[in-house]
Amino acid sequence: MLEKWYEEIEAMYEQMVEWRRYLHENPELSFQEINTSKMIGDLLESFGIEVRRNVGGNGIVGKIYGAKPGKTIALRADFDALPIQDEKNVAFKSKVPGVMHACGHDGHTATLLAVAKVLQNNAEELAGNVVLLHQHAEESPPGGAIAMIEDGCLEDVDVVYGAHLASGSDLGSVLYRIGPVSAASDAFELKIQGKGGHGASPHQTIDAVAVGVQITNQLKHIVSRRVNPQKPAVISIGSFHAGNAGNVISDTAELTGTVRTFDEDVRSLIIEEMEQLIKGVCKAFHATYEFNYTKGYPSTVNTADETNILEKCLINTLPESKPVIIEKPGMGGEDFSYYLQNRPGCFFSVGARNEDIEAIYPHHHPKFTFDERAMLHTAKIFLSLVDYYTNTERKEALVNSSTI
């Protein structure tokens, strides 16, 4: 069964590329993916798949029903783009000024569409069901995942898997780990209100710049002295804006930044410590402040059994794969985390680097691209996972194979 699916997905490779390139030429930003959502829904319906539109916003959920009862596995692909000008010199360059697919979401979508068609064509072979989670707005908190979950996208789902193309890893590699793979990603804004005045008379002012500098310096001590060193955390100031003239002491300073953590207790501790520190520094300098902290996506945490199953599938059904167990999680954010807070599953990365076509730039770079053969590799992994959950004989054969 699986070998036949592989042959069918390989025959769809050119179609996969065509879909990907169309999406790349016609990107849409988070929460604005009207045409992309319609395209996905229309294609799934043309395959004969049951489709629910406008799930949690612009999300699309398809469901493939197997001929026999069994587990329901969900597969996720995101489809929003980024506010970045496409600087690649390729025929399928973005046609939308200032907007491009700079993170591989066009490839994720094309891959899952092809997987959907193959599985629908072979639904009579499935002992179980497959839910297709085509998700909007991964790039912009609060994101699309949580809204889709609240709208019932995980109803009757037993396990959930997601993949991300990775331009920083060699083609053929598959990167995964049990436990955290990405950090909780939070943002904060701080406005300091002082008292402006002439640069020659600092004693008559409350220098908002000086207050902001003190806060910036002291924030580093929260991680180094208040957080357990065995629990990673990052506090970064990304912007600091104050004043317009060199001889004027500014009355205001505005700072923005991000906090990255894996442990919820550490996350809560940092919020509390930041508030106390900011309050104390501002009081010492006679300034007032406004502090807004926004929780973003939580940490993405893979469950053990489902990650072991991924590895079994790679080793036993995709010997050409190069499994790579990630030693340490990354500090980036990913709203696949919400699915894993509600269901067991695994989020993994698939290598897509190729120097020959300049697929070497990092994600969110104006020249980002990937080796499109990675889509075929990802599709085969998805098919292998579906086969495991919906093929009793295959599952029994793999149950005693190697694990992480």
Automatic annotation (TrEMBL):
<dbReference type="Pfam" id="PF01546">
    <property type="entry name" value="Peptidase_M20"/>
</dbReference>
<feature type="binding site">
    <location>
        <position position="364"/>
    </location>
    <ligand>
        <name>Mn(2+)</name>
    </ligand>
</feature>
<comment type="similarity">
    <text>Belongs to the peptidase M20 family.</text>
</comment>
<keyword id="KW-0464">Manganese</keyword>
<dbReference type="InterPro" id="IPR017439">
    <property type="entry name" value="Amidohydrolase"/>
</dbReference>
<dbReference type="GO" id="GO:0016787">
    <property type="term" value="F:hydrolase activity"/>
</dbReference>
<feature type="binding site">
    <location>
        <position position="105"/>
    </location>
    <ligand>
        <name>Mn(2+)</name>
    </ligand>
</feature>
<dbReference type="InterPro" id="IPR002933">
    <property type="entry name" value="Peptidase_M20"/>
</dbReference>
<feature type="binding site">
    <location>
        <position position="164"/>
    </location>
    <ligand>
        <name>Mn(2+)</name>
    </ligand>
</feature>
<dbReference type="InterPro" id="IPR011650">
    <property type="entry name" value="Peptidase_M20_dimer"/>
</dbReference>
<protein>
    <submittedName>
        <fullName>Peptidase M20</fullName>
    </submittedName>
</protein>
<keyword id="KW-0378">Hydrolase</keyword>
<dbReference type="InterPro" id="IPR036264">
    <property type="entry name" value="Bact_exopeptidase_dim_dom"/>
</dbReference>
<keyword id="KW-0479">Metal-binding</keyword>
<feature type="binding site">
    <location>
        <position position="139"/>
    </location>
    <ligand>
        <name>Mn(2+)</name>
    </ligand>
</feature>
<dbReference type="GO" id="GO:0046872">
    <property type="term" value="F:metal ion binding"/>
</dbReference>
<dbReference type="Pfam" id="PF07687">
    <property type="entry name" value="M20_dimer"/>
</dbReference>
<feature type="binding site">
    <location>
        <position position="103"/>
    </location>
    <ligand>
        <name>Mn(2+)</name>
    </ligand>
</feature>
